[in-house]
Amino acid sequence: MTGDQVFLGLGLIVVLAVGSQLLAGRLRVPALLVLLPVGFTAGALTDDVHPDRLLGTAFSPLVSLAVAVILYDAGLGLDVSRLKGHNRRVVVRLIWIGTVLTVVSAALFAVPVLDMSMSAAVMLASILVVSGPTVVGPLLNFVRPSERLRRVLIWEGSLIDPVGGILGALVFHGVLAGDRPGFGRQLGQFAAVGVAGGAVGACLLWLLLSRVRLSEELGTSVQFAAVIGVAAACDALRDDTGLISAVVMGMAVANLPGPDVPVRRPFFGTLVSLTIGLLFISISATVTPASLRHVVLPSLALVALLVLVTRPLVAHLATLGTDVPRGERWFIGWMAPRGIVAAATASTFSAALADKGVGGAERILPATFVVIVATVTLYGLTAFPVARRLRVLRPARSRPLLVGGAPWTVDLACALRSAGPDVLMWAGAAQERARIEEAGLKLAPGELLASATGAGAELEGISEVLLLTGEDDFNALASMTLRETVDGPVRRLRPPSANHGVVAPYTGGESLFGPGLTGPELARRYEGGARVVNRPFDGEIPAGNELLFVVSAAGRLTPVTGSGTAAPERGDTLVLLSPPSRP
Q: What is d(CA 402, CA 400) in angstroms, rounded to the nearest whole number?
């Protein structure tokens, strides 16, 4: 290809990747639903985006390194201390039972139906083990199931990605080795290189992130360079061991004390998101209409087996003997879309197996492509009505997070709770946390805000965040940080004046309450005898009271903000700041 064609092809891949993700975000659908057909169409209509022609032999190594970056990011989200009790038991069972049953059922089915050799069928089945949070997460955000369901499915997706990636690499090398003697020793060397490389990389990152002062941008660059460097070195020593090293590095950094990772996750997440987009466009462009011609119908039959038989069986075995209700068991059995790691590992391994003459290996990539498209489309279209039919949707009432522990803030939280919303609170000071617990309110973990800047695991189920601390700069900075990790709005108290504080006056976002009701003013009025009270709306707001929130009969919360006043209706509950009672 000429230089101009390479420029055009690379530019198109980047534009199509970002444009597809932008469109998916606007449509509120998983990015895969847009990326895969766009890449496939671009590959069918033009040769300019075909990665084999653009990058030649460099394409496969670049895919492996990109998958290593994605698996490292998945490993960063695996803080095992957060998975406890029955949820932990269910997730662990979903991983190992799901892996065994998926490999066995898909492999036995693929041999006769897809006309594959047993080696190619086992390879395909190992690839299809993975699901992935990049697919499950957007689906759950749209469906909004109960918090427990969301937590279990997100954890399963986060864990199965690295497990599936490593399993795929092991099966690939097992297929290549065949019956040759010494395979056990070679497999041990394969695992040893990956684990040793991951340990070295984890030590390096621990030293740099915990002992060296790095900016957010440089911290992201250091992680990226370490993952790429270690994975490339491991792959040079032993093919595909970089996948193991990346997972080990991610899990080690997430679970070792010291590394300051959470504040850098958004920056690294941006890099991972771009990598996923580029991979999907590139990989789907390699799937030609001709390669799909004899694969579509058999692959759809495989999808039917996985969706209707294998996954429900896995879900019921995994939840057996636990406190998971029947409806949640069935919903877990109806949520297993395939994602980026399946596509990337199929692209990496299928061509090599086909070159080695493994029967049916050329069908691995197109079959995986069909399974990804079919499962994401099926679950995307049916997940919400299924969740509604099973009655596992999150309650319609609001679940606000109130940040702050001043007396008036706790009083406000009690008033909101009695009006209907499920209130959660967070405060940093021990005295404020004790005050919240004494009031009988739910208290979020002490590391909440640090965790929220990462994967947002502790903010699952939160409908909105209300920043009510007495520090205006903290409220402003927290608003900027949380805005990207919370589905609902993030609102804060208005600063006392336009020139007050270092940060507060210069940040955007919607401020709470009417003019003049700043944090200091609310605290002053509360000390003077004002209280937060509830009143059913009977057509007018009581004289002398200031409206703070309107709570609907269904428990939905509407605050008074700087941009407008809530419009109550009969049957709503008013949350008011009442004047001091007269003696």
A: 6
